């Protein structure tokens, strides 16, 4: 996790608004102008600023740009696959003979560089999202501002460096600790089954720590930009600085695995004895819908789960038929037989915390995607309205469809559609469940969206607690209107029979009533929408 997402419904990038002297259609490059798009295509040397091409020349140039953009979208995942193949499968072998094979080293280095550059060509870099250049306002940026102003300070711990103090300042509980031993993150060389990476998180911040690590890894959710990634050097200094990542983390954290935006993900892999995943066996991005027996590969897991089995606490063989024996790692309440836990803040890797992390990571991503989709759709309308001399507030039908589609996907996940039904009760081994449930608003009957079920599903009331998050509230108003209107509709009546099972058929009448009543008392925006719809109904 801390070391992402990517949206586009159009072939050509739209990184530039119209210039002050002319109106340009999306994806069209004005003559003689070098834009972020042309630089990203690597065309600035081909089409210098002083170039003067005739109409046919510029038509050909823009046609090439559009085709290149389309190819980028179609083959983005293949580029990621090539990158990972060379990074994890060939890197060690090639560099072990780098002195005798200079040309091989050069070839692989160039290929890795090209793959990384291609995989980093993401549409959210330009307008209207401006991920790289827009002002950041997340918990880490706010903490850094306090540190710079002298309003806060970090304390050094001889055993864990800045970690305990960072957790305290960012209000992240130690009980959220989970341990991952697969080599799937920034400091992979220091991670192994005997020395796993520790993760801690709250509703908007994720923190990673590795024994003898060079940095503390931190990511936080910016309400407008999605996940922002930082590192904090593990060295004593009077002025500790969180340094923002400028692209390396996005190789993994901005792909289809993160819903196409800068975001977070939990991966289940088949780890070898040194923690290296057997990529040939596949990897799984997990959330609350993932079957239990496919979860937690490469993670340590403490907690009970009855007859269900998972992939955690185990090393995989390179055997496609039966790579992991899940039995020895099942229902472990202590990791003492697997590793030395004394270097960590807590002795376990809580099962319930892992399950919340799975849900939360993709919920964040879908909120960011809904926000990005709305802003990009509105931006496209603004460009087209100017080009066609329409009213500035005109909204096209395609924009409405894009917003509705993104809202529906968000709501389905928000209400736990397709959630895997637990076959046995689950329980963790730390104070995480009680601490997590104690936070957040409750209604007059003492009910909260943070109350756990853990018998047949994760939460007692299947509506995500992240509906209270700053990122959710920061979504553009058209998206909020669409989400709240649809929520009111879904929670008011049972889904109608249409010959196909509704994605909300899992909600019983008592579920719908409870969620509606909780939100009415604890979420003012929902209450206002419910009242408006009720007053408008004859």
What does this structure look like?
The protein is of the alpha+beta class and 538 residues long. Helices cover 36% and strands 7% of the residues. It contains 13 helices and nine strands. The strands form two sheets. It has a seven-stranded antiparallel β-sheet with strand order 6-5-4-3-2-1-9, sandwiched between helices. β4 and β5 form a beta hairpin. α7 runs antiparallel to α8, α11 packs across α12 and α11 crosses α13. The chain is globular and about 65 Å long. 41% of the residues are buried. About 19% of the residues have low confidence.
Alpha-carbon Rg, integer: 25 Å
Low-confidence region ranges: 4-55, 72-122
What characteristic shape results from the CA principal axes? globular
Task: Please indicate the percent range of residues in DSSP E strands (runs of 2 or more).
Answer: 5-15%
**Strand line-up in the sheet with most strands:** 6-5-4-3-2-1-9
- First CA to last CA: what distance? 50 Å
Number of helices: 13
Main β sheet profile: 7 strands, antiparallel
Quick structural overview:
Helices cover 36% and strands 7% of the residues.
Features:
alpha+beta, 36% helix, two-stranded antiparallel sheet, globular, seven-stranded antiparallel sheet, 538 residues, 13 helices
How is this fold's topology laid out?
Elements: H1 36-40, H2 55-96, H3 102-119, H4 139-149, H5 163-169, E1 178-180, E2 197-201, E3 205-209, E4 215-222, E5 226-233, E6 242-244, H6 250-253, E7 267-268, E8 284-285, E9 299-300, H7 351-387, H8 397-414, H9 432-438, H10 470-473, H11 477-492, H12 509-522, H13 524-536
Antiparallel strand pairs: 1-2, 1-9, 2-3, 3-4, 4-5, 5-6, 7-8
Helix pairs in contact: 2-3, 7-8, 8-11, 11-12, 11-13, 12-13
